[in-house]
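Quick illustration, no need to memorize.
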Amino acid sequence: MLVPFVVGLTLGASAVAALGWLRPAREKSIDAALSVRCEKGELLACRQLGLSRMVGLEAPSDLKAARELLERACNGNDAAACGQLARLMESGQVGAVDGAKLTQLFERACEGGEAEACASLGKRYDKGRGVAKDQAKAAQLFQKGCDLGNPAACGGLAIAKFIGIGTAQDLELAVSLFQKACDGGDADGCHGHGRMLLGGRGVAKDEARALELFERACGAGSVMGCRALALLVEDGKVTGGADPARARRAHERACAIGDQPSCDRLERPSPTRAPVETPEPH
């Protein structure tokens, strides 16, 4: 029977048309809607609007407005906003970098469960940037960030476990952490995992797998990964013969992301020159 079907379709179309007539002719923009919600005290909306203003989602980027909106959300204890604000300030695009202020913001964000902030704060304590150097505290922060799922924090903790600074040395755990960091997309974590496999430290030696990881690390922007890749393919023992063209590509990649030793190597190529030294994970 087609009649009921046709009647139902007609009624449905009429209802849709009526709803379309009642709907405003033009819905508000995303920024406008977020602005209304932010003014009503919705911290998430303030943060989202701040990010929109930062990247220029609907209008030209306005970093000053972005900072003000993120500060508003952060002051209301939105941990993610504190982390975003810290990273914006750290970039130096909204004024002079205030180390003490950055540390405070990263602390608030990390305490609120923002994993990336824990990793950033761990690096600050590890290197003594804006705070007194404290590698034990850095390891604790890396642990927290890693537990919260941040790959870079897992990589930082892996290095601490590998060296045994700020925490007890544990090579097997370092391998596991490097792998976790790499699987999460941390390029230096891939390099670290490769180094452990190449030397058979904390894990069975696997040079072929190490080469794959160095390739992956280099492609993802790790200078150390590019150096390690170049060293292995220049040596040729793992690859079954030297591959100068592949080594040069690795040096070019490293040079392009700011590695001066690789740039120097490209300027003065020599088959008898000693290969660029590959540093330990750090």
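The chain is about 70% helix and 0% strand.
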